[in-house]
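**Protein fold record**
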Amino acid sequence: MQMPIRCPWPGHDPVYQAYHDNEWGRVETDSKALFAKLCLDGQQAGLSWITILKKQKNFEQAFFQFEPEKIALMGEADVDKLMTNSGIIRHRLKIQAVIKNARAYLEIERQGQSFSDFIWQFVEGKTICNRWHSMAEVPTETPASIAMSKALKKAGMSFVGPTICYAFMQAVGMVNDHLVSCHCHAECEQHARR
């Protein structure tokens, strides 16, 4: 049986391949799912995504399945406790960022805009369908990710720089950055938001 052709970045890791094939680049519009993904992408800063992916269940357990209302109530004692949790990334600023981001999320929603609409406005609600032939062509940030980063920081979030925002945009289907040779490209284009 012939192996599917996929983007080169998942390598031979079955966990990474499953993420690439079933999640990455698939359109996500649920506000809480977007919040969870943005928090996880923030944890990636300075690390590889596979490190976070393999700890995802631990993060979900540590942060109440990424329920913003519950996370927003966490304080420094909770941060201290999480600093002893070997199942997650024990980085005080990153842990504090999840709490800050939850409070900012709730404030955005309190102002009458869903977090999903807030996030998707940077691509005018539509998936940007790219047609890259090699990984060298794929950018690490774009004007849209820079604008998103500025808006999220202004809203009170952290660990949301332009590169993190672009990785997030790729992951949640705001852009289709599967290479054209990849077996997922056509499917992601077919299910793109238009």
